């Protein structure tokens, strides 16, 4: 039962953060975005906006992988979108 609450809280956090929602939607294929416009007025407005279209164009020009981290274990939940650089040397010591 607790897992459902955590999922719900994460979804609410994403829904309240228009910047985070935009970061996620920018990575969705264009055909799927047409269907996602039906989710809510907020999503339709965001996906239809000029700023979203410009961001989509910029995103396509610089396709780099990102990771989404949601910390729900601490009292103050945090969300972070971080770039992943495949050229970074990740060695364990």
Structural summary, described in words:
With 93 residues, this protein is an alpha+beta fold. It has a domain at 2-63. Helices cover 54% and strands 13% of the residues. It contains five helices and two strands. The protein has helices spanning 2-16, 18-25, 30-36, 41-48, 50-61; strands spanning 66-71, 78-83. It has a two-stranded antiparallel ribbon with strand order 1-2. A hairpin with a 6-residue loop joins strand 1 (66-71) and strand 2 (78-83). The protein is flat and about 35 Å long. The relative contact order is 0.14. The model has no long low-confidence stretch (mean pLDDT 77).
Percent in strands: 5-15%
Helix vs. strand class: alpha+beta
Strand tally, please?
A: 2
Oligomeric status of the shown chains? Answer: single chain
Number of helices: 5
Strand order of the largest sheet: 1-2
Average pLDDT confidence is 77
pLDDT < 50 stretches: none
Largest sheet: 2 strands, antiparallel
Euclidean distance between termini CA atoms: 39 Å
Q: In which range does the helix fraction lie?
A: 40-55%
- Shape, per Cα inertia axes: flat
Query: SSE order in H/E notation?
Result: HHHHHEE
Cα-based radius of gyration, to the nearest Å: 16 Å
Protein name: F-box domain-containing protein
Pfam families: F-box
Organism: Corchorus olitorius
Domain F-box: 16-56
């Amino acid at each position: 039962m607790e897992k459902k609450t955590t999922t719900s809280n994460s979804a609410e956090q994403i829904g309240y953060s228009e910047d985070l929602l935009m970061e996620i939607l920018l990575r969705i294929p264009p055909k799927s975005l047409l269907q996602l416009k039906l989710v809510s007025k907020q999503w339709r407005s965001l996906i239809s906006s000029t700023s979203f279209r410009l961001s989509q164009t910029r995103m396509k020009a610089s396709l780099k992988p990102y990771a989404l981290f949601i910390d729900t274990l601490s009292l103050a939940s945090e969300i972070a979108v971080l770039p992943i650089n495949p050229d970074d040397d990740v060695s364990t010591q």
